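Structure in, sequence out. Go:
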């Protein structure tokens, strides 16, 4: 054994597909293996931009503009009766305390400064279920809507466009849409 190598014993049930993480690599070992040989440790001084945490944006107006730009991509799907009111509805939605509490925290999502998952849930509800259970989109197709969000990067919005937000958010959105309906 070389002086810079370390040997350690891994105990666990074979067949449990244990994953061992080494700096810079992830290795899934054979479930039947009971020993690990030539595992190197140490810091190599490498940093990854992908792993570094992005500081949250404290100016909500910047995040709000980004959200509205994102939502505006769905305008082609909106029923003609709602087109002139659509962005007003979204401004009202973003003013809701229930939405404010969740939308500005992006969590662990990458390539966004807002909670894209929660925003997709709200888009689903507004487009597909709000307004007496039929939504305000002409024809709700989650795949088509997800495609309008793609801008050269794959984002996992498609599954999220099939879920509703929490009940308090849905009730508040229903109130907004009824107010805009008049």
């Amino acid at each position: 054994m070389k002086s810079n190598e370390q040997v350690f014993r891994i105990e666990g049930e074979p067949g449990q597909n244990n994953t061992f993480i080494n700096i810079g690599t992830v290795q899934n070992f054979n479930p039947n293996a009971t020993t690990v040989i030539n595992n190197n440790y140490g810091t190599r001084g490498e940093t990854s931009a992908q792993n570094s945490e992005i500081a949250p944006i404290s100016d909500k107006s910047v995040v709000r503009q980004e959200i509205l730009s994102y939502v505006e991509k769905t305008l082609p799907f909106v029923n003609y009766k709602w087109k002139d009111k659509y962005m007003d509805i979204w401004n009202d939605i973003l003013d809701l305390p229930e939405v404010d509490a969740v939308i500005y925290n992006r969590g662990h999502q990458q390539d966004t400064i807002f909670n894209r998952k929660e925003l997709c849930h709200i888009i689903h509800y507004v487009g597909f279920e709000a307004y007496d259970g039929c939504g305000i989109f002409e024809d709700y197709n989650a795949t088509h809507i997800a495609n309008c969000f793609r801008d050269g990067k794959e984002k996992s919005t498609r599954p999220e466009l099939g879920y509703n937000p929490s009940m308090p958010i849905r009730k508040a959105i229903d109130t907004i849409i009824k107010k805009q309906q008049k």
